[in-house]
Amino acid sequence: MPQDSTALAIKAAAGDRAAFAHLLEDHYDMIYRVAYRFTGSSADAEDAAQEVCCALVDKLKQFRGQSSFTTWLYRVVVNTCHDLRKKRGNQGSLDHRYSELETLLRAEDAEQAKQVSWLYRAIAALKPPLPETALLVLAEDLSHAEAGKILGCAESTISWRMHEVRKQLKEAAS
């Protein structure tokens, strides 16, 4: 019978290896997907996902259950991606960061691929914290409230940020 992630996290923090393995199995795809969206490369996403999984053993001791485990885990992944970016210096050119995305998108309809590619580049060009907000709301389809919990700010702040994202994307498209 499937268990609640919060209950599993509490058990894993207490040293239950089976609960930890179950958490990783249930959430690895999300960890990798979010890391990929924040880094733009499968190699960097794999590095970030590996770092999250390794650090999770110790980080689970900090989980208090005040939010859902998934919300807390999103924050861990976002922070890990930020830390990796800082470790590696500048972000590199957008062309390099999105080359793998371009390759994947070529297999899809050419016009749609062009639009999606433009959108990701435009989002990446926004000043922080707008890109991370846009990726959580648009790509991960999280509510403003959920994104606010993950990013540690009010739902109204996320709403304002998304207003700015839309405004700046509209200007970029003109």
Write the layout of secondary structure elements.
Layout: H1 5-13, H2 17-39, H3 42-59, H4 69-87, H5 94-97, H6 99-106, H7 110-125, H8 130-139, H9 144-151, H10 155-173
Helix pairs in contact: 1-2, 2-3, 2-4, 3-4, 4-9, 6-7, 8-10, 9-10
What's the short story on this structure?
By secondary structure, this protein is mainly α. The protein is 77% helix and 0% strand.
How does this model look, in words?
With 174 residues, the chain is mainly alpha-helical. The chain has a domain at 1-89: RNA polymerase sigma factor, region 2, helix turn helix motif (Rna Polymerase Sigma Factor, Chain: A, Orthogonal Bundle). The protein is 77% helix and 0% strand. α2 (17-39) crosses α4 (69-87). The N and C termini lie far apart (53 Å). The mean pLDDT is 84.
List keywords for this structure.
Rna Polymerase Sigma Factor, Chain: A, 174 residues, mainly alpha, single chain
**What would you say the CATH architecture of the domain at 1-89 is?**
Orthogonal Bundle
| Average residue-wise pLDDT | 84
Q: What portion of the residues fall into strands of 2 or more residues?
A: under 5%
Uncertain runs are none
How many strands appear in the DSSP assignment? 0
Q: Helix tally? A: 10
CATH topology title of the domain at 1-89 = Rna Polymerase Sigma Factor, Chain: A
